[in-house]
Structures are given as C-alpha cells and as structure tokens.
C-alpha cells in the first residue's frame, strides 16, 4: 500500500464512547499531522509530530489525545466528544516539519458525534 | 478573522469558461501552496510558489504569487468537469502552515 492511509473512513460515535483514529504513511516521512476540516471553515491544524515527538499542539481540547508510536503511525484517541466535534479528520505527512514541505494527505475519517 | 481569505467561496461555471480564484492575506508568507480536494479525498498539492511575482503554469492552470508575498491567484483556462473540486491555498511562515477555507468550484458539462 502506498501514500497515506486512514482508518476508519467513517465513524459514528456517542458522546460517551471512546474510539481511535489511525493513520499510516508509507512514504518514509519524518513529520505527521492531524487536521480538522469543518464545512466552510479553514483546515485547522491540531497536532504535529516530528520524529515521533510532538512539536505543535494548537489549543486542542483534552478530549482529543494524539499518539505517535513510530514515524509511520499516528493515532488520535477520542473520548467524551461533543456534537460540534463532528467533522472530517485528515492526517498528513511531510518529509520534514516546517519550511513549506509538501504535505501528503490521507482520505480522512468522517466523524459524526451523536 | 481568517489569516487567509479565499474568494469566491463558491463558483459554478460551464465547461470551456475561464476563471480566477484568489487567496489574500495581510501577512507575508515564505511560501504559498495550492491544493485541490475532491469529494471523499484529502487535499492534493498542485503547486508551491516561493518568490514574489512568481508565475507557475501547470497545463491549463496558472498560479501567481503577489509581489509582496501576501496574496496569490489561480487562473484556469477552458475549465473542464475534471477541474471540479475544493481549491485550498496554504501559506507558510515561521514553520507555521495555515490554510484558507477554500473555493468550491463546479464545472458543468
């Protein structure tokens, strides 16, 4: 498999559930990202990992918890979410962090919180 | 207020028409990227511009970076239904990449 993959593609969860989103990149990149995409709003950068260390956390609520066990895998653990958290969650990777490196995106996980 | 303002928000045109979409900011960027996102997929990079005044062409797409590196435009000549999608601009400064909300383009056959 090539590029950036994300699972699941669709997820419906209640506000009391705990779930995890998974991202895997097969590009040998050093940086990985989580974005939130809501209708009519800009892509919101949530977290950045460079060489498995978190380098950026943009004031994301603690109900979102990222995990990067190695440079190829990135998880987003979800618990006690709110309906306004419903969105498309995109994972991306780049050769390195910063300096305008091209980001390669996965297809996203469409999350609905009921 | 968004860091990057994209206009128009929506654009629906007939096949064969020309169009221009804009990405504007009051901030100076080290580089600016344009992405296209199709339904059910993640954004895909089209081009990166880094020099003020730079013009890059990709087949029927022409990208221009403003002289002051604060704005950019994307011009499509003779649009085709395959050009349909969400066009996103992203500006990079100080290792921080910010995206605009996008222009949703529909090209009707």
Question: Which stretches of chain B of 5+ consecutive residues score pLDDT under 50?
Answer: none
Q: Biggest interface pair, residues each? A: A-B, 19 and 25 residues
Query: What class do helices, strands and sheet pairing of chain A give?
Result: mainly beta
Which structural class matches the secondary elements of chain B? mainly beta
Q: Which stretches of chain A of 5+ consecutive residues score pLDDT under 50? A: none
Our count of helices of chain B gives 0
Tertiary shape of chain A: globular
How far apart are the termini of chain A? 33 Å
Our measurement of the CA-to-CA distance between the termini of chain B, rounded to an integer number of angstroms, reads 36 Å
Q: For the CA atoms, what is the radius of gyration of chain A?
A: 13 Å
The proportion of residues forming helix of chain B, as a percent range, comes to under 10%
Question: What is the number of E strands of chain A?
Answer: 11
Beta-strand level of the residues of chain A, as a percent range?
over 45%
What is the typical, i.e. mean, pLDDT of chain A? 92
Tell me the β content of chain B: over 45%
How is the quaternary structure best described? heterodimer
| Radius of gyration based on Cα positions of chain B | 13 Å
